[in-house]
User: Which sequence fits this backbone?
């Protein structure tokens, strides 16, 4: 279906509608979302580890992600950070995580990722410390830092080199042209200090973050006239963020959680649905209006 082209609306109308949407969806509407797994922990170091694992496996249905990534974290004990710092060995982990599966990633992929995270934590002290060491305030956006962060993790020693393709999927890199939805989601959780995000990495400028571009965000922002590209890639994510930055220069990804809720909670579908559209907060700025 080709979106009906409404008369161009004032930017202020769209900003007002989006801000209203943000105010409507808060942490009480979180389930299902991989961020639930991060919020289980109170220690920032545990939240970093839970965050990168929850984000790495955040593809597919949200409820499935929460279940499978939650199983992985549960097997790491009360403190995922302490497990990687003090107890992790690849041989023991193959037994501990036997049977783990999330779609096309299996036990060996999870262990290979944990092995590299354990090395980084033992060398740097924490994932946040690694990110701080590669962060540059002079970059136009977070892309170059994200690339350096991912490359630093992937370059860590590993006993199973055959897992590199799987790891490069789990930890995507802007240099490959990917939208890096899951890594940008992880950064949103770590950097933004507004609920439901945690604001652990206060040394990072939230204005440099890039929208976590998934199918929901890509589709709905197209309906809103904020996206004009068919490919959900890094260029699209940057262009979308640039448009949202005009509404919130210091925090353009503030709209991610609320817009994504419309998709995850089936409040906005690929086809016009009168029952949903009539009550949607974005109805007046959407290109699929109820006639």
Assistant:
């Amino acid at each position: 279906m080709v979106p009906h082209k409404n008369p161009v609306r004032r930017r202020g109308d769209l900003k007002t509608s989006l801000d209203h949407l943000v105010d409507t969806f808060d942490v009480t509407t979180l389930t299902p979302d991989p961020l639930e797994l991060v919020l289980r922990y109170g220690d920032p170091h545990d939240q970093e580890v839970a965050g990168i694992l929850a984000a790495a496996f955040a593809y597919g249905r949200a409820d499935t992600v929460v279940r499978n990534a939650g199983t992985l974290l549960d097997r790491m004990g009360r403190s995922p950070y302490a497990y990687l710092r003090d107890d992790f060995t690849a041989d023991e982990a193959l037994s501990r995580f036997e049977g783990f599966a999330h779609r096309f990633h299996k036990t060996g992929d999870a262990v290979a990722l944990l092995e590299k995270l354990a090395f980084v934590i033992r060398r740097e002290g924490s994932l946040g410390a690694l990110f701080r060491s590669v962060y540059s305030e002079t970059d136009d956006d977070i892309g170059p830092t994200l690339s350096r962060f991912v490359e630093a993790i992937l370059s860590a020693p590993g006993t199973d080199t055959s897992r590199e393709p799987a790891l490069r999927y789990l930890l995507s890199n802007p240099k490959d042209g990917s939208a890096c939805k899951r890594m940008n989601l992880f950064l949103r959780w770590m950097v933004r200090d507004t609920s439901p995000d945690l604001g652990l990495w206060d040394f990072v400028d939230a204005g440099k973050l890039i929208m976590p571009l998934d199918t929901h965000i890509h589709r709905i922002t197209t309906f809103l006239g904020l996206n004009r590209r068919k490919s959900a890639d890094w260029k699209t994510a940057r262009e979308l963020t640039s448009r949202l930055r005009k509404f919130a220069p210091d925090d353009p990804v503030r709209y991610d959680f609320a817009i994504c809720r419309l998709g995850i909670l089936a409040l906005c579908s690929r086809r016009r649905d009168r029952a949903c559209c009539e009550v949607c907060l974005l109805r007046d700025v959407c290109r699929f209006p109820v006639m």
The first helix runs from residue 11 to 24. The beta strands are 101-102, 105-106. Confidence is low (pLDDT under 50) at residues 1-10. The first strand starts at residue 101 and ends at 102.
